[in-house]
DNA sequence: GTCTATATGGCGATAGAC
DNA sequence: GTCTATCGCCATATAGAC
């Protein structure tokens, strides 16, 4: 038992049966609030209030604010890789796999907005060490599989650039939604994942044709 | 004379002959530091030090931190529209215009990183009122012209979605550079604007073809 | 228009009781 | 493991002299 104290996965399982440890409660609130306000924008007092605990109790579980932030990010990232497993394991042509990947990525990003905003803030800070950690421990496998797919779809093109383009297209539809509401030509269906997914997939597979 | 005190454009002109007013000095530093650290991350003391002035002097020019921030954003945005004028006024096929637009956007974003980061932070905050201001007073004309071009290139597709895709592709190559360094398949030429521009243009005009 | 000095409060972090 | 109380510092913002 003592061996598992502090193990996030154990706490996740506890969470699934409705028992949230204090540490997990803190981390859950931290993910939401760091995503919303950013690192300097969230005070330990605000977090303590949100988690319904005292500031001193937070410092019992985490040595300082920075360590808590890093833990929260790791916690938010854990398990995300599994979402795409079914995409890569599924049967079908490369074109079908691309459509499925785009659809899945879009759903993950739109459903878990806190995850998306946390990543976005991290990328914006662009700290080299943290970028390396993020790339290697979170996204590396997915990026490689996407490059493989890109290579099947367009062997003559640069797989790294193609993979980046695919991710860019999906990510920015989510990100630009609040801004794009204010531009002409906006239609209600532009917020529906299937419409966006169809557009992106079509664009990639056919380009712009008259 | 008194009429022009506080007029940013006047101060810009003064700036061009090497005379920076204190207010302009503050705004210039504010753009850099807000872009780097974000609103809560930058203190008035740090800004005062960077602008080589006292905190009280800043409060002589701006009523409070928030007003200063909004002024800094407006200041950073002023004049950006002119950059693309030559793209839209130039002669050539729609395909050539697209290539030129992509190239210009890429250059503006890569050269003026502070501008890019300020916008990015604003979009991430996603405050509805500020999104409206940003869309209408800064990007509206460009977006409309880009939609027109999209319509010429692909009349059967949704111009709003196509325009968003084009911007997404360009913006994220800049944004992902620090992260992408850590993925396999990375090549040095992936940081050259002309290589990126060629890839994006090709992707849009031809799609992924075997 | 700029300064020094200061008011007032929130910040991260800790001490020590229970 | 959680609390109340508190430390020392830095935050935004202001007062008033020059």
In total, the number of strands of chain A is 0
What amount of the residues of chain A lies in strands? under 5%
Uncertain regions of chain A: pLDDT < 50 for 5+ in a row?
Answer: 1-11
Major sheet of chain A: none
Which CATH class of the largest domain in chain A applies here? Mainly Alpha
What is the share of helical residues of chain A? Answer: over 70%
Please name the fourth-level CATH homologous superfamily of the largest domain in chain A: Tetracycline Repressor, domain 2
Distance between the ends of chain A = 66 Å
Average the pLDDT over all residues of chain A and give the rounded result. 89
Backbone shape of chain A: globular
- CATH domain topology of the largest domain in chain A: Tetracycline Repressor, domain 2
**Sequence of secondary-structure elements of chain A:** HHHHHHHHHHH
Short description:
The structure is a homodimer of 210-residue chains. Chain A has 210 residues and is mainly alpha-helical. In chain A, 72% of the residues lie in helices and 0% in strands.
Could you please describe the fold and organization of this structure?
The structure is a homodimer of 210-residue chains. Chain A is mainly α and 210 residues long. Chain A folds into two domains: 2-77, Orthogonal Bundle (Tetracycline Repressor, domain 2), CATH 1.10.357.10; 80-206, Tetracycline Repressor, domain 2. Chain A has helices at residues 8-16, 22-37, 44-51, 55-61, 65-77, 85-89, 94-111, 113-125, 128-153, 159-180, 193-206. The longest helix of chain A is centred in the last third of the chain and has 26 residues, at 128-153. The radius of gyration of chain A is 20 Å and the shape is globular. The termini of chain A are far apart. At the A-B interface, helix 8, helix 9, helix 10 and helix 11 of A face helix 8, helix 9, helix 10, helix 11 and helix 12 of B. The structure holds a DNA duplex (18 and 18 nucleotides).
């Amino acid at each position: 038992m003592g061996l598992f104290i502090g193990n996030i996965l154990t706490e996740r399982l506890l969470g699934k049966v409705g028992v949230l440890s204090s540490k997990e409660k803190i981390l859950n609130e931290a993910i939401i609030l760091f995503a919303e306000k950013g690192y300097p924008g969230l005070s330990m007092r605000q977090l303590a209030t949100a988690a319904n605990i005292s500031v001193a109790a937070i410092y019992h579980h985490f040595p300082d604010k920075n360590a808590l932030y890093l833990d929260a990010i790791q916690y938010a990232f854990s398990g995300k890789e599994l979402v795409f497993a079914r995409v890569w394991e599924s049967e079908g042509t490369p074109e079908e796999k691309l459509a499925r990947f785009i659809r899945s990525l879009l759903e993950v990003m739109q459903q878990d907005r806190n995850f998306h905003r946390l990543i976005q803030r991290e990328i914006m800070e662009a700290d080299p060490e943290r970028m390396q950690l993020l790339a290697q421990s979170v996204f590396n496998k997915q990026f490689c599989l996407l490059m493989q797919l890109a290579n099947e779809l367009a062997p003559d093109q640069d797989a790294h650039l193609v993979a980046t383009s695919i991710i860019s297209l999906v990510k920015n539809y989510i990100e630009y939604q609040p801004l794009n509401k204010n531009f002409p030509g906006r239609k209600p269906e532009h917020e529906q994942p299937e419409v966006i997914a169809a557009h992106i997939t079509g664009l990639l597979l056919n380009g712009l044709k008259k």
